[in-house]
Structure formats: structure tokens, C-alpha cells
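Instructor's aside before we start: the two examples that follow are unrelated to each other. I chose them only because their records fit on one page, so don't look for a connection. First example below.
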Amino acid sequence: MLRVTDIHTEPPAKTSGLKPSGLVFSRQLWCICLVLILTSGCASYGVIHNKPGTDVVEGKPYSLKTWAQADEAADVIFILAFSGGGTRAAAMAYGVLQELRDTPIVIDGRPGRLLDEVTHISSVSGGSFTSAYYGLYGERIFTDFESEFLRKDVEGHLTKSLFRPIHWFSRKGRTERAVEYYNEILFHDARFKDMMQPGRPMIVINASDLAYGVRFSFIQDYFNLLCSDVREFPVASAVTASSAVPVVFNPVVIENFTGCPEFHPPPKAAKMAEKSDEVAEMLSGLESYNDKQNRKYIHFVDGGITDNMGLRAMSDVVAISGGPAEMVNTMQRRLPRHVVILSVNASTEKRSDMDLSPKQPSMLVSMNAMTDVQLHRYNAATVDSVRGFLNAWATQMSSPGHEVKPYFIEVTFEQIPDPTLKLFLNKVPTSFSLTDEQVDTLISSARELVRQDPEFQRLVTNLSHQ
């Protein structure tokens, strides 16, 4: 997730991984805010990219069930979760994909790669650039993604566009210009149906419903609520929604069409809601899409606002289904023997200097501190929740003759033993413009963290000896 206070208009100095000085940073931020304030009176309208689709049951929808049936005989459910954090998050996610590609395994006597066992990738914000690129282009990510995104000054281009006077009074919003740019450099007008290719994992891009705070996933299971077909939805628009920082970017607007059945929670999901306030709130948010008159247009922003880890989206889907066993049964899939969640957490630990002086911290410093505290605490709660959910999932699906083994693998800077390297990585800014040194270090560190994780090593051993 990007924060307003993380946005800067000049690339970081090529000789260090530090942000620009506080004085320059503040002036740049206020310049951006001034332009936004001056142009806020000029109405801009979100371009509606989704279309009505009441016949999405025909053919193969972009849904969890479609992927489950295509992979119904596999013994592994392997979910990657890519967090927010600008290019920093995208680079870490890319490093993890590289490591999985280079990890050999032997299953039932057949040699393969661990990357080929990945079934789902759930992502938010910066991590969505990596997941969407891999979903569309597969192995091409390892030859082109670094030059086309990780080492490109994406932020500089977007900032220059913001300061062009011709755009200040345009009816086309800042977000629509971002969509156009991402299409130009990465997605080339691809739709979600283009990611429905054999052997590819299901890509679950997540955003936040600005009005109701609903975690919303760009899959058919959620688009059914809007009476729309996600197969025709532009990938660039979904990625932009997933990374659209409020105020800096306009929301991505999607129309809520009529003509399909209302959503009502399945009985088992409603039963779960009686014991969980979080599940009850989630189901209430989903039911709000039934109000076609007052919720005709839904405004989506940065997915990191409601889940900066990309983890809760998957547990939401399980809860909506009424639990893991019920979900597997609904999908008509054979019970797996291994359930894996690999979380790539690109959040950093910023150390403030405010305690070194009695001087009152500036508004920007205070905003940063408040955001960091809330983000880290919510991330910690998310990890604890998902760990418990994963263990419960495995227990509910296990039987005396069929044990389901859970694995939770976490890639985070907190696990780095070298204090110098840890400090360097924690100073990498949340932006879309990094130095080559920063990108190289992020990729290599992510690979090493995966390789050394005990749960990862246990997974590789168990898969090769089953």
C-alpha cells in the first residue's frame, strides 16, 4: 500500500537507498496537494469499463470453481499472497517467483518445479503488478518484467503527467491516465479472459470499496454481485484500482448492474457470522451490492486499505462458502494433501527521529507514524488470523485415512539476520521508482528468505517424499 506521504516527485538518489531530504520531500508533497486542491473543482468522471453479464454461467467463468475443476486431481493447494508497497513489493514478489522456478521437486517420480504447483496468487497494490504480469505472460516475466517495470521510472512518468497544465482541467481523471500508461508499458489492453490459460495459477487482484470498506476481489465470484462478467474487464483497470492511493488517484468506478439474483449468504456462512463479527461485517458489505438504486456505481481504491497483505481475501472466500470443507465440496474438487500459503510481506519498519528531540513533530511525520503503527498492528493481526485459519482448514479437511498438512511461509524483512542489510531494505521507499541496487537487493533477499524458511524446506521435503 502506498501512502500519500510516501509520494515524491524526484527519483531517489542513485548513490543511496534513502528518501530525499525532509525539506525537499515536504515541498514536493505540498506542490502535489496544491495542484490537487486547485483542480478538485473540475469534475472528472470514472470511465466505466465493466459490462453487464447475466449469462456468466455459460462457458468457463473466471472463478474459483473453474480453476478447482481444472486442477481437481492435484494434491496441493498452493496460494501466494503478494502485499502492497510499490515497486519494493513488486520486486520481492518477483524474487519469490524466481526462487520457486529454481526449486526442483519430484512428485510421484516425476521431476518438476515448485512454481508449477502454485494454484492461486492473491495480491494488492504493488504486488498486483507482478501477479497480473505473470498471469498474462507466464515465463516471459523472467526475461521482460525487470526492464518493463521494476527498473522503469513509473512514478516519474505519472508525476509529470500530473503537472501538465493540459491535464489540470481535463474531464479524464488521474487514474484513467494511469490506466493508459500501464496498458502502454505492461498490459496492452489485456482482459481477464486472457489469463485463463492452461497451467497458470488463478490471479486474484484485490481492491477496496471506498464507500463501504469491502475487500473486493476481481473474480467472477464477486462480479456476480454486480451482474457483470469479469472476463471482459481490463487487467490494467483492476491493477490500477488495487494500487489507487486515495486523494492522489481517483477511484476506479464500476457499474452495479441489475438483472441477476440477489446475494444471500449460504446457511453455513450465516452460521459462522453469528460467532464472528468480522465475518458478519463482511457479509453485510457484500449484501449492500443488492441495493442497485443507491449503489449504482462502486468506487474502488487501493486494496492495501482493507488488507495490505493480500491474505484476508482468500479467507473471505472460504468464509463466504461456509468453511473449507464446504468450499472444496462445492467446487467438486478432490481433497488435497498439502495446503500452502506463502506470504510476501514488503512492509518496512521506519524509525522516526522524533524521540531524539523535544521539538514537536511535523504534520507529515505524525501522519507517517500513525499510518505505520496501524499498518504493522493490522498486518500482525492478519498473519495470526490466517495462521489459525490455515490450521483449522487442514484439520477440517483431514480424516483418519487422509491427513491434510498445512504450511505457512512468511517472507518479511523482520527475518533478515544481517542488521546492515535489514537497515538498507527498511530504507527502500514505497514508490514506483527505485535504483538498480535497491531492485537487485530486494530480489536476492526475497529469494534467500524463501530458501532458508524452515516451513519452505519442510514443504519441499514432503512433496518429494510422498
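Example two begins here.
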Amino acid sequence: MRIRYRIDGILQEKYLLPRNVHDAVVSRIKILSGMKIDEKRVPQDGRFFFSHDGNDVDLRISTLPSTYGEKVVMRLLQKSIKTPTLPDLGLRGSALKNLMTAIERPHGIIIVCGPTGSGKTTTLYSVLGIVATPKVNVVTIEDPVEYQMKGVNQVQVNVQAGLTFASALRSFLRQDPNIIMVGEIRDQETADLAVNAALTGHLVFSTLHTNDASGVPPRLLDMGVEPFLLTSALNCVVGQRVLRRVCKNCEQEIDIPAEQLDDIKTTLGPIYEMILDKWKKDNKPLKVMKPVGCEKCNSSGYYGRIAIYEVMPITEKIAKLIVSKASAGDIQKLAMEEGMLTMKQDGYVKVLEGVTTVEEVLRVAQN
């Protein structure tokens, strides 16, 4: 029986227990989670809570019947965690400025996109931490509610009771909201309701599963949203991934390998020259950090995580491309011409700043 922890996005094996204790351990977890212990043929979901050092921890449990017994995944959510600021997450420069400009508008949609586990919800909570003041009414529909926020009305999806993203959105519009957060846009009905809410004077935040920011408008058009409505409602799209930070306790400064330097130069283009000029003014050598491994980072060489972003404001030119149903590639090309840094470029800037490594950037952001 293998027990692994996912630390900073990577599974690490912690314990190997004898096979004969497997059933007892799984049964104990099922009892705590309110599951049927005698049902081993179908997947089950459950949850339970515990307190650690005065903090409430919520565990989401999922079981799956496999060839040699049931597999269990336990997801830990710390309820009272402090919401990080956007710069803490890794947003900076023009990307941060463009997102803040979109947040300050009184209505419209801001969408954060990326695969599962890329930190989208954390970014949205950080944004809510900025806008959720006593002067505005903020409501959210989430699946599940991951963190509890003061001053925010948080609703959890309950499909069995008929409470879905779409049905909650309809009810929200009768609750006099200023700001609405929809955990995820999954279907045409939710997309249409979110667009209509934005057009009727609400600020809407949501997430979508696309690979990058430029893929969001085509995905929403594929869902059936009218192009002219989408361009009127959509303020900004944020693409993101999370990668590991180099452990500060054991990092080692090295020269950039030639093949990596060529890739960095090609990817960053003129941005590389700007960084190089700044380094020359500061009399800094062109070096990067190498992960070594120590007791603090469990010999991985990495400790903690940071996000890489691309922020695409919907400008007049991009709106025209959306109306003409242009491809994601065409939209990205125009956004880059207008100054957008791609996730890979943002990652390489963080490599040159000594925050992470080229290998990490390629692991999460290589197309």
C-alpha cells in the first residue's frame, strides 16, 4: 500500500505499508467521510473535517475501485488561510496593471484560464480580496467553496438539490449583487447567463479550462455565445500555470547553458536585451539558479510555488478579431504585438531573476 503526498504539484512517496492493512485504512477513511464501507464496486465521494494547531482543515475524499483494491485520494483545504496578494502570486509589470484596470471597471467579465491545479481559484480569491469591501455586495457560486472569505456570500454547488452554476446565477441576479464569481463556466447556459449579467451592470469573475488566454474567446463562441455580446462583456482574460520555486536554502548559482540561453533569447526577443542592459548597469553576471537539494526541500531542490501569467485585455483590435471569429493563434499574435507577455516569456523572466529554472518553465508552459 503506497502513500504519496503531492507537494508543490509533484507526487512524493512517503510510506509503504503492508498490503494486509489496506482494507482497514480505507474503511476508517470511509467511516470518517460518511461513505458506505461495504460498497467497493463503484466510486464514492465524501468529506470530513479536523483541527490542527487551531486551524480547521477540510478534507475532500474520493475513492475508486481498482484491480487490487480501492484507491483513495484526499484533498486538503485549509479554511482560514490568508489570501495572498497578486504580486505575491507572481503578477507584475504591465500584466498586473492591465488586470487592475479591468478589476476597477464597474461591469464586464474577467476570466482566468488554465488546467486543473493551475491556481485559478487562488487568483480569483486574491482579486476578490481587493474588490470585496463593505460598500459592495459580492456573491460566489463554487464547487467546492475552497476558502472562506469575510464579507463574501459564498454558495456551494449541490447538483442533487438542483443547485448548479446556472441555477445559482439566475438567483444571484435577484440578490442585488455588484460582483459575482462563478467557479467555472462549463456549458452554454452558464456562459449566456454570465455574459448577460456583465451586460446588465455586474462585474463577473469566472474560470475556463483552456490552454492559454487567446483560447478563451473561441471557446466561448463554440459554446454558443454571440460574438457581438462577448466583445461587449469581456474585459480581460488571464492565463496561468504554477511552477516550483528554487529552494533558497540550497540553490547554486551557475552560468546559463548555451542551449538554454539560445531558447531564452529566441523566446524573449527584445525583452532579453532590456534585461541584459539592466544587469550590465547593476554589474551583475548573467547567471541562473540550479536546484541542489537539502533537508528543507526534501532533496528536491525546490520549495514553494509561484505562478506565471499572461494577461490579455480585450482591446478594440482584439474585439474585431473575436467578432470575425478569428483563431486563437491570430488573437495571440495580435495580443503579443500589443505588448502581452506569454506564460513562457513570463517564466523565462523569472528564470533570469533566479526564482525558478528553465526545466520548470518547460514542464508547465511548453506548447
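The chain has a mean pLDDT of 93.
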